[in-house]
Amino acid sequence: MARYVVDVMPKPEILDPQGKAVLGSLPRLGFAGVSDVRQGKRFEIELDGEPSDALLEEVRAMAEKLLSNPVIEDFEVHAQDVEA
User: Fold this and answer.
1) Domain boundaries, the chain
2) Is the confidence at residue 52, as pLDDT, over 60?
3) Do the beta carbons of residue 74 and residue 26 sit within 8 Å?
4) Residues 79, 3 contacting (CB under 8 angstroms)
5) Which positions ≥6 away from 35 have C-beta within 8 Å?
6) What is the Cα–Cα distance from 27 to 25, expressed in whole angstroms?
7) Which pLDDT does position 82 carry in this prediction?
């Protein structure tokens, strides 16, 4: 089994109201020194077969076509070890 992780984040120039809300709440909860928060999403995808460059490219295509909005979001894809 192959497991891949897709991390999707708003592009730096895009306003992130959820991140700003979290940033505003942290000091009220006693957490000081946080200068910025960006909120994104994470997908864990398991595929049949062994990890390969071909599967990595397939997951990148999934991220580009469905899991992210390339106009306002960036994404990163990486393989993750599968624990037995």
Assistant:
1) 2-80
2) yes
3) no
4) yes
5) none
6) 6
7) 74
